[in-house]
Write a structure and sequence with these properties.
Elements (H helix, E strand, L loop, with lengths): L20 E3 L4 E2 L2 H11 L9 H5 L10 H13 L6 E12 L8 E13 L6 E11 L5 E12 L27
Keywords: Plasmid
GO molecular function: lyase activity
Protein name: MaoC domain protein dehydratase
Length: 179
């Protein structure tokens, strides 16, 4: 029967199990524009990231993607599976940049749950630790790190959805059905 279907709302504390692996569904190809904008926004003045001549004269033979951009993409890729219902990151540890990243590379990330525990100070939440690794299009690992975060328990008051309620629900009455 047609009607409102709830979309993916993310995992809550109760949904995490040690050893679970999440292969995050969205790959991301990094462009030269992404890298240039990121260096500008973060005031990164290392010319290896935005000066073709400097990049070409380096041991890599081309410009490098700024590593904080790679880290930001990896964390972002993991949100849909891990921290959609988190309210605070508590730590980012054991960060390793294991291979260079270049404009044109496509990054994919996956995470494994390393541990979880109830919060002593916040009964509506728990603490989860994951390890994430990021692979490029050739399946070469370019990055890995451990991340610990607070995540809401299912039904926690602050975890309530915030989608605005329209005065009039969306229905087929407003649109002709087309096949």
């Amino acid at each position: 029967m047609p009607g409102l279907r709830e979309g993916w709302t993310g995992r809550f504390y109760e949904d995490f199990e040690v050893g679970d692996v999440y292969q995050h569904p969205l790959g991301r190809t990094i462009t030269e524009t992404d890298n240039t904008w990121f260096t500008l926004l973060t005031m990164n003045t290392n010319q290896a990231h935005f000066n073709a001549q400097v990049g070409e004269s380096s041991e890599f033979g081309r410009m490098l993607v700024a590593s904080p951009l790679t880290i930001a993409i990896a964390i972002g890729q993991s949100v849909v599976d891990t921290t959609q219902n988190a309210f605070a990151n508590l730590g980012l540890d054991d960060l390793k940049l294991t291979a260079p990243v270049f404009a044109g590379d496509t990054l994919w990330s996956e995470s494994i749950v390393l541990g979880k525990r109830e919060s002593a100070s916040r009964p509506q939440a728990g603490i989860v630790t994951i390890r994430t690794r990021t692979l490029n299009q050739d399946a070469t690992e370019v990055l890995s790190f451990r991340r610990t975060f607070y995540v809401h328990r299912r039904g926690a008051q602050n975890a309530a959805p915030s989608f605005p309620q329209a005065a009039k629900p969306m229905t087929l009455d407003d649109e002709p059905v087309r096949v």
